[in-house]
Amino acid sequence: EINFFFPKQQTLAVIKPDALEKHKEDILKEIQDRGFSVTQLKEMVLPREMAEEFYKEHSEQPFFSQLVEFMCRGPCLMLILTKENAVEEWRAMMGPTDPAHAKETSPNSIRARFASDILQNSVHGSSNEQHAMEKIQFIFGDISSEAELTSDGETDK
Ligand code: RTP
Ligand code: MG
């Protein structure tokens, strides 16, 4: 019998403002039940400029300003999820962007169960490994750059 080894992978998950109000505990429980480790977690209200940067790939879309408005309207919960194949598994667990579509094709998905509409759709997930690394860095920073900032900030010449 061959045993394949899948290395652990990280992805960025966000519980968006619509769902954080009403479904935080349900979603966190589901994440844990499906075997993800939550390795970092941070609740924050995204400043407008950060929301714009976060979704910059959509800046030309007609829904961009609504999207930014929505993402800043209240606290988001930012999570680093760790598991084998985390990027793909979290995307599958979320379901498709539009909850109407999600209800038809994946009724057990987070969006089928907890999302209100195509804009207020409860959760975000990185779409590939490169995105995951970039967005994790963007939201959580990294220790080496924090150390640099601190030592710069402390120079008193
Ligand atoms: P996400 O990036 O948040 O994980 O969502 P996604 O990949 O499933 O969908 P994406 O195409 O990246 O869109 C980003 C977010 O923009 C909002 N949206 N609104 N009104 C609309 O037609 C529309 N389309 C997208 C949603 O909040 C979507 O998750
Ligand atoms: Mg996306």
Automatic annotation (TrEMBL):
Annotated family: Belongs to the NDK family.
Binding site for ATP: 16, 63, 91, 97, 111, 121
Species name: Channa striata (Snakehead murrel)
Purpose: Major role in the synthesis of nucleoside triphosphates other than ATP.
Top-level taxon of origin: Eukaryota
Protein's UniProt name: Nucleoside diphosphate kinase B
Subcellular location: Cell projection, Lamellipodium; Cell projection, Ruffle; Cytoplasm; Nucleus
Active-site residues annotated for this sequence: 124 (pros-phosphohistidine intermediate)
